[in-house]
Design a protein that fits this description.
Layout: H1 9-60, H2 68-75, E1 85-92, E2 97-104, E3 114-118, E4 123-125
Antiparallel strand pairs: 1-2, 2-3, 3-4
Helix pairs in contact: 1-2
């Protein structure tokens, strides 16, 4: 009597179904985790911009004239745009305030979403992960 070795078609299909279920659960979770990490990085840069803006304010007694180039010069930092986000700092309230802005260039939620941080460290914006309490 000859014994066949190997997998039956049913076993192969069952294994493929199990793998597909694992991927269906895992891939969205992975994408979400990566997006949260990218937002956390952008939010860290926004905190750095705001902190450096206060150094600018301490020297010039105004936020007028502030931008990323001025912040980089003032703080000796190197805040640069990357493939995911662009960064800006704009004075508000006639130079008495500042808003640091990160604008999303690409991602699962599309381009153009923003995360902002003002001089009072209040988060806002249109991107889904704008508030650190959201994730």
């Amino acid at each position: 009597m000859h014994k066949n070795s190997g997998f039956t078609m049913i076993e192969i299909v069952a294994a493929c179904v199990i793998i597909a279920i694992i991927l269906a659960i895992g891939i969205p979770s992975y994408i979400s985790s990566m997006e949260i990490a990218k937002c956390n990085k952008a939010m860290g840069i926004l905190k750095s911009i705001t902190t450096a803006a206060y150094d600018f304010y301490a020297e010039f007694d105004t936020f007028t004239g502030i931008n990323i180039a001025a912040i980089n010069t003032q703080a000796g930092s190197s805040i640069v745009n990357n493939t995911d986000w662009t960064f800006a700092a704009t004075p508000t309230g006639g130079g008495s305030g500042i808003t640091a802005i990160a604008t999303r260039l690409k991602g699962p939620h599309g381009a153009g979403g923003t995360i902002t941080l003002d001089q009072d460290y209040v988060w806002a914006g249109t991107y889904p992960y704008t508030d650190p309490g959201n994730f």
